[in-house]
Design a protein that fits this description.
- The protein contains 11 helices and 11 strands.
- By secondary structure, it is of the alpha/beta class.
- A 5-stranded parallel beta sheet has the order 8-7-9-10-11. The protein has a 4-stranded mixed beta sheet with strand order 3-4-6-5, with helices on both faces. A two-stranded antiparallel ribbon has the order 1-2.
- The chain starts with a helix and ends with a helix.
- The relative contact order is 0.11.
């Protein structure tokens, strides 16, 4: 349940269309469901405007399926799953409708929403092709929440003219997600060009001295461009979720 659904139920009570008891049944008095191995937060949509997201890494296939079923049974039309393996997809999809993107490891159970809400444009740019899996995690997350997403892939600083060729797209964005490994310079370059927030995503792409994304993380944290914020290494989901929140303000 999200905020709009809760408001609709309360309006129905105020208008006399349903009774208080009927409203209670719809809202459900228990804010979470204890599955033994997980406590599914059914009221997160009411508090935060978006339902709980399943982080699949480290969970068994059976656990993922049970959480998905619990959320769908509680009224969620779609459930976002991140870091989902191919084997988990094959297991879960036997029992529920499931979209899966093996590049980003994003799964979507139930109806695939992807309905643009008329808000501004989110631009997601990558330094190189190797950064695309993380960028797609961000892009599919933002699209899941109804955002208009434009992808600009392989526009890194080693060929800066590729980025300059898309200046109009950058200048008309509501928020930009800059995804880069190596030295992570892309976020600073974009940050110095646009007047909107830039969310920097360091990736673990790079040679030995990249230290699994640490060099890009530190470069982005030390960016001299104003308006650049940084999420954790390879955290495409976090960037896509934050971009959605900014876009809908």
């Amino acid at each position: 349940m999200d905020k709009s659904e809760l408001q609709s139920i309360l309006k129905q009570v105020a208008d006399g269309e349903i009774s208080c008891d009927e409203a209670v049944l719809k809202i459900r008095t228990e804010p979470f469901e204890d599955l033994g191995f997980a406590k599914v937060d059914h009221h997160r949509g009411v508090r935060q405007g978006a339902a709980e997201v399943i982080y699949a890494a480290g969970k068994t296939e059976e656990q993922i399926l049970k959480i998905v079923k619990a959320m769908l049974a509680n009224g969620e039309k779609s459930v976002l799953i991140t870091r989902m393996s191919q084997s988990a997809y094959e297991y879960v999809s036997k029992e529920v409708e499931l979209f899966y993107d093996k590049l980003s490891k994003i799964g979507i159970a139930g109806k695939k929403p992807f309905n643009e809400n008329g808000a501004g444009k989110i631009v997601i740019a990558t330094g190189g092709t190797s950064d695309i899996p993380v960028a797609e995690e961000a892009a599919l997350t933002a699209e899941f929440y109804g955002n208009n997403v434009l992808r600009l892939y392989d526009v890194g600083v080693s060929g800066i003219h590729r980025l300059a060729n898309h200046i109009d797209d950058l200048l008309t964005a509501r928020v930009v997600v800059a995804v880069a490994g190596m030295e992570g310079a892309l976020a600073s370059v974009i940050g110095g060009m646009v007047d909107c927030p830039v969310i920097a995503v360091p990736t673990s792409v790079g040679y030995g001295a990249n230290f699994g994304g640490l060099s890009a993380l530190l470069s982005m944290l030390n960016s001299c461009a104003s308006g650049v914020s940084v999420v954790n290494i390879d955290n495409g989901f976090g960037a896509g979720y934050l971009a959605n929140m900014i876009n809908k303000l």
